[in-house]
Specification:
The protein has five helices and 18 strands. The protein is an alpha/beta fold. The strands form four sheets. The protein has a seven-stranded mixed β-sheet. The longest helix has 23 residues, at about 205-225. Helix content is about 25%, strand content about 30%.
Length: about 300
């Protein structure tokens, strides 16, 4: 377990922002079967990241528990919590103490029978700025999320903070360019993706390298296409909450610049916190020199709202 400060390598023409770089903190950790232990560990790592100067700190997806969606089990609904609730209250105190923005991925109980995979965005004053409910909900072997989560109904959003404008999507959302684009169109300078993704152990030898490569490439492409920073935060460890072979989470949390260049990447199997400086002036530069947003043909994209084009 360790903190890894890194240098933000810039091109010769990049300009520094007036306030200097913003330090991001990405909390990559393992999870035990004990939610209280996981919460305490994450809070400790958030405090350590803040002590290193991180001012926007993001957890991995569903950090309070092991990834329970590997099976369909009604008992796991007991893990859900209200937002706002005791969890966001505790994190709010932490955010206020460190004057940091915290992005916390939680299992939200909205009402009886209505649950969401939700990110709570907490401002440096400790108040809840808002929430993002996961829009794309998968249903794949060992990723039975449709059993647990109602698809999000708040749309794609971005939040102004004293440190910059941030957008948040969650895991399966990261495969959809539409999600990144709609968030960036609201001015998001950094896209955060709390994530829980890994290998089926039986598939790793044959497909593992391609699966990880695809995951990284698609998110780096979001950074390029939208002229923004992308921060993906994954977990590590082999988890078997439902028995069987489980999922081997591949870690490798990373931050990509608007050029798509990876600024920092965590290890594949170690608990680690990345502290990554980003200069938001690079967003303005990228969007000016690569004016993809300017040249969009919004008059020709109506068919995007169709499932298929006949």
């Amino acid at each position: 377990m360790g903190l890894r400060p890194v240098q933000n390598l810039k091109t010769k023409n990049s300009r520094k922002s007036k306030t200097g770089p913003v330090l991001l903190g990405l909390i990559q950790t393992h999870c035990s079967p004990d939610p209280a232990e996981n919460f305490d560990r994450a809070c400790g790592l958030i405090s350590r990241a803040a002590a290193q100067g991180a001012r926007i700190i993001c957890t991995q997806e569903l950090f309070r528990s092991q990834y329970f969606c590997q099976s369909e089990n009604h008992d796991f609904f007991k893990l859900a919590e209200t937002i706002p609730g005791p969890g966001t209250a505790a994190l709010g105190k932490l955010a206020r103490r460190h004057r940091a923005v915290i992005i916390a991925s939680l299992f939200e109980k909205r009402a009886a029978g209505v649950y969401h995979n939700t990110a709570a965005i907490i401002g440096p004053d400790g108040r809840l700025l808002g929430r993002y409910r996961k829009m794309h909900v998968p249903d794949d072997p060992l990723y039975y999320e449709k059993f647990y989560f109602t698809p999000g109904d708040l749309g794609f959003r971005a939040w102004p903070t004293p440190l910059g404008k941030i957008g948040v999507c969650i895991c399966w959302d990261q495969w959809y360019p539409e999600a990144a684009r709609l968030t960036a169109l609201q001015g998001a300078e950094i896209l955060f993706y709390p994530t829980a993704i890994g290998w089926h152990p039986g598939e790793k030898a044959q497909h593992g390298a391609d699966q990880h490569s695809a995951w990284e490439i698609i998110q780096r492409s979001h950074a390029v296409a939208n002229g923004c920073f992308v921060a993906a935060v994954n977990r590590v460890g082999l988890e078997k909450p439902a028995g069987g072979a489980g999922i081997e989470f591949w870690g490798q949390s990373f931050v990509a610049a608007p050029s798509g260049r990876i600024l920092a990447k965590a290890s594949v199997d170690q608990e680690e916190t990345l502290i990554v400086p980003v200069d938001l002036a690079e967003v303005d530069q990228a969007r000016t020199h690569w004016p993809f947003l300017r040249d969009r043909r919004i008059d020709a994209y109506g068919d995007l709202t169709k499932r298929l084009i006949d």
